[in-house]
Amino acid sequence: MGSEALRGRDVWQDYSGANAANAERDFFSVFASSFRGTDYRVRSKPKEFKHIYVDVELEEQVLSEIFNPSEPITQHGVSPDYCIDNTKSGKTLYVEVKRQDGWVEGGKRSDGRGNAHERSCKFFTPGLLSVLRSQSKIAEPALPFWVVFQGDITRDPCRVREISLWYRGVENHHFFWRDSTNEKPLLEHFNAKLKHLLD
Fold first, then answer.
1. How many independent structural domains does the chain possess?
2. Are the CB atoms for 172 and 124 separated by under 8 Å?
3. What is the pTM of this model?
């Protein structure tokens, strides 16, 4: 099949092979394989936001009350784990992948003590959301980011409830990748619920 035909397809090939069934797959390799021959690409550690805090202007009063180093700060920003670009439309979806322990069978409630899921909420803050939206070219009401959770957190009865409440109304923008040996549900979620945002 030629590249033109591939670009027009709505459903990509199922890349779940025998090798993938026996080994945990990571987000990047799943999407790099799936996007081969299409207008889409996945990038690791996109750099577009690595300076966003450097130029935040503060009032003189605030500056007089904080530490001001003698050497200027030249790098201070955010680096999402990945992003998915549509090279044809110029739109981008930013991606965080959060792996975290959780409370599951045979464990204790305190096993779910991590806060990686909470740190991912920075993308909901008004200022950062505005910057992400402007760069991504994804219009409201959709979000310009997607958070994929992996590990025991995806089965923790407390953490799953927390995350489900946080994303109420924007459920498409998070995914519990409970079985990392099976990439099919991850790809299906993207294809059915997020891919159209990049068109």
1. 1
2. no
3. 0.85
Query: pLDDT tens per residue, the chain (199 residues)?
Result: 444 444 444 433 343 333 323 334 699 999 999 999 999 999 999 999 999 999 899 999 999 999 999 999 999 999 999 999 999 999 999 999 999 899 999 999 998 888 889 999 999 999 999 999 999 999 999 999 999 999 999 999 999 999 999 999 999 999 999 999 999 999 999 999 999 999 9
Distance CA 33, CA 166 (A): 31
Is 112 among the domain residues? yes
Residue 60 lies in a domain: no
57 within domain boundaries: no
- Flag whether 66 is in a domain: no
Structure tokens at 20: 């993938």
E-strand ranges in the chain read 40-44, 82-86, 91-99, 145-150, 174-176
Let me know: does 112 contact 159? Beta carbons within 8 Å: yes
> What does the alpha-carbon distance between residue 133 and residue 36 come to, in Å, rounded to a whole number?
26
**Domain span including residue 94:** 26-51+79-198
Short-list 194, 196, 184, 199, CA closest to 94: 194
